[in-house]
UniProtKB/TrEMBL annotation:
Chain ranges of the TonB-dependent receptor plug domain: 112-215
Superkingdom as given in the UniProt entry: Bacteria
Name of the protein this chain belongs to: TonB-dependent receptor
Record GO cellular component, one term: cell outer membrane
Family: Belongs to the TonB-dependent receptor family.
Domain TonB-dependent receptor-like beta-barrel: 377-970
Keywords, in A-Z order: Cell outer membrane, Membrane, Receptor, Signal, TonB box, Transmembrane, Transmembrane beta strand, Transport
Major location (coarse): membrane
Phylogenetic lineage: Bacteria, Pseudomonadati, Bacteroidota, Flavobacteriia, Flavobacteriales
MF GO annotations: siderophore uptake transmembrane transporter activity
Signal peptide: 1-19
UniProt membrane topology term: Multi-pass membrane protein
Pfam families, per database record: CarbopepD_reg_2, Plug, TonB_dep_Rec_b-barrel
Subcellular location: Cell outer membrane
Amino acid sequence: MKSKLLLMALMLFTSFAFSQNLEVNGTVLDASGLSLPGVNVKVKGSSQSTTTDFDGSFKLTAVPKGSIIAVSYIGFRTQEVIVSDSKITVKLAEDARSLDEVVVIGYGSQKRREVTGAVSTVGSKTLEILKPIKVEQALQGTVSGVNVTTQSGAPGAGLDIRIRGIATNGQNGPLMIIDGYQGDLSLLNPNDIETITVLKDAQAAIYGSIGANGVVLITTKMGRKNSQTKVSYNAYTGFQETSRKLPTLNATEYGLLLNESYANGGRALPYPNISNLAKGTDWQDEVFGKGVPIINHDLSFSGGSEKITYSISGSHLDQEGIVGGDKSGFLRNTARIALGADLSDRIKLKTNLIYTYFTRKTLNENGLGSVLFNALNVPATLSPYNANGDFSLVPSTTGLGTEIINPLAQIANTYNDYNYKKINGNFGLDFKIFNGFVLSSAIGFNTSNSEGKNFAKQISYGGKVFDVQRSSVTQNTVNDNNYSFDLFGTYTKKFEDKHNVTGTIGTTIFREWGNGLFATGFDVPNNSWQFADLSLTKGISEALNTSGYVYDQRRLSYFGRLQYDYKGKYLLSAILRRDSSTKFGPGNKVGYFPSLTAGWVISDEGFFGESKTISFLKLRGSYGTLGNDQIPNFGYLALLTGEATYVFDGTLVNGIATGQVPNPNLKWEGARKFDVGLDAKLMNDKVNVVADYFIDTRNDLLIQNIPVSGITGIGAPGASSPTLNAGSVRNSGFEFAIDYSEKFSDNFSMTIGYNVTFLKNEVLEVNNGIGFIEGGSFGVGQPAPSRMEIGKPMGYFYGYKTDGIFQNQAEVDAHPSQVALGANAAPGDIRYVDTNGDGVLDTKDRTNIGDPIPDATMGFNLQLNYKNVDFSMYTFASVGNDMVRNYERTLSDANRLDYVLDRWTGEGTSTTVPRVTTGATANNVFSNYFVEDASYIRIQNIQLGYTLNPDITAKAGMTKLRLYTGVNNLYTFTKYKGFDPGASNGAPIGGGIDYGFYPIPRTYLLGLNINF
């Protein structure tokens, strides 16, 4: 009996010991020892959970001793701690490259280790460091296979994204998906973005006819459940300056050169007395501002309860231009609200609304007669103002032409304004029908309205083409709308702990519609911007002065995806999408876009063993077909979009006529994408490697200028020949990215990243009757310098090849005559190559003289953290891209860059730069003399920050206070003579021609980040 009582007592004591409860007080820190607020802390196996407060502390009551507490926070590895004491400290390690990281892939997500396509991501931390004005800038140098080019450095100017090269003669921009709906990346506030995901291969086939150019998926920030309200304020201010000035001739150098030119032409010297010219006017100093301000504010609130999450934010950006003062600028305001709610255990709601408003003022740029073009070509001997204080006039002599004017007068007489308002967002519901099956629905929409006004003041520049004989104001209003409705179901099932299946099937409805109105009024009252409004103009127009358009297009799609893996080791994904579109004729409305991706996690195989060097190794491949429907509307129909003039009762009357000749067989472009890749993690996950080889073949390109009979009226204004699917382009290349992260101590850590992309572009087919398409322009009246042609890269430069400078008359006599190029050659002139060897130099000798597409692009990024100090640097390089120097007016009296000082002045003096003369020469025909290697390395961003000790900031009620300073676009290393070797006007044919690109400003920033 005693033994039984003893046993019962022992059991009661043991039970008491194991059921002892503790009040746990804990602190959560990051790798550097700073407190982390908003961290989720949960007792495993129970419903008890909490979040850390502003100083990283938490409290849990009645926690059984021996329980396991899971500590999780986005961007850090989840850590589990066994409760053995009432006080614990948890230090979380960053997990930016964890294989369990969830990657968005379109209509769903996957763990990174399961992804079988070529997918890259950029996180919010990178955006915080780079401080891009537009989101697209954050992709340059951070994602392999992606090249971002600026159309201009002017405030608010557009950017072009190219994923794995230029594949079509039409629209090459990728599809932008924002939280599941089609949107505009350039209008987003970068501070609202959580992640950017880029789909580069057949993984994008889930988007079918709109995914051929690649897909960029944006996930915006949301609140977190069970977290206190987090207030974040980020602001920076700074000033801008030009990143580059071109070395033009000063007044004395110009006078000496002009005297020599006139003497060589047998004319009287224009500057017989050089001594009083001095340096003259530096026109670039006159037009470029110094200390030009930029300011940005971001304020956000986020948090959540057990069932509701929220994120509310607003931003203000104000950027002035480095050219033009108050005549150039960009102001953007955004407001956003995102809500998530668990309406029940089965139904979840998610909504996101964004309002954007911006205004922009612009100057004439990127062309003959632009502000910078004039600043480079106006002689330094001219003063900005005359004796009366008025703007001086540039003489209308033959040597200065009729398009070069005083750039300061041009700026002063530029009047325009543009404002844009947009609301976009989505509403989504997830309904858990039964365990493993979720039905999702979402409505996304965009609605925008823009208004523009441009005033042409009546003015004379002294007989120039920019003289305005009659004042006018042109106004326009554009309304664009679209909506999408997605309905899809996702079924997830695991069989026998080995087989994992995820199936997705759904439908999408997309409609886009809008209209635009344009009108011009003449004789503005008082010839003033103040009265520049259509309602005040009473002048009678002599020609058609109103126009407009309306459009309405729709797309109906069905899609399905099946994902399977065996033990997480063998991975397979199959996608099929069916699209029908109103853009195409009855016989081509429907298209099918299949793809297949697969992966093999080699490191999970038994034969791989326990490698001390390689912790993860995956081989993957993909193949599929995608489409591109970015073509003009109604190309398969005959529309009355042409202009015509008719005679009624002896009077000319403006009317309409047929436009483009229709092609009922028009259809979308198709892309066959092949990719094989390798993912690896080395040295205890410190090194991450991604490598891909790809081939992207685009078929059925839309080719214009098909020769047809003139009796169809194709020569009339607004009319054109039909467009056919008659082209093909192939891009192939290799991508490689490597990242290394090392924590040397609790105080010091480092991350280094490098990526490179090698690309080859080749046109395979152009069936338009002549075998090529021309584009771009050079000089005045010369043939188009850029082409798309079989066997050549897209947009290659087509002109004459040079072979040095004629040194004497004997060399001239021994060479085929160059008179067909414009003039007989003389010693000191450029010697052109007879490429076809027929003994005659003429247009048949034009050939490939350059390629605007880089052979390789790469990025190198560095981040260092020492105690409370952080440093980062982001760089980008482009190798092998050529650019045409077309910002110099080839007139005898125009100013020149100082390379002309190395000109030929006699036998043996120069083999690269021709003589100067007012006489006739062929030196200015388009040749490789004007084509330069535009390879460059750019330091895109350098930033140095300091985070105050949390013990100090906590006394002020803050969880974080970080101060930083930085420089964007610090320096560009290049041999190219122009303002920006990385700029492009965006055209696939003619995009590498420099008309005087507005340089990207160098920006010095001072900012702070505050969290409450």
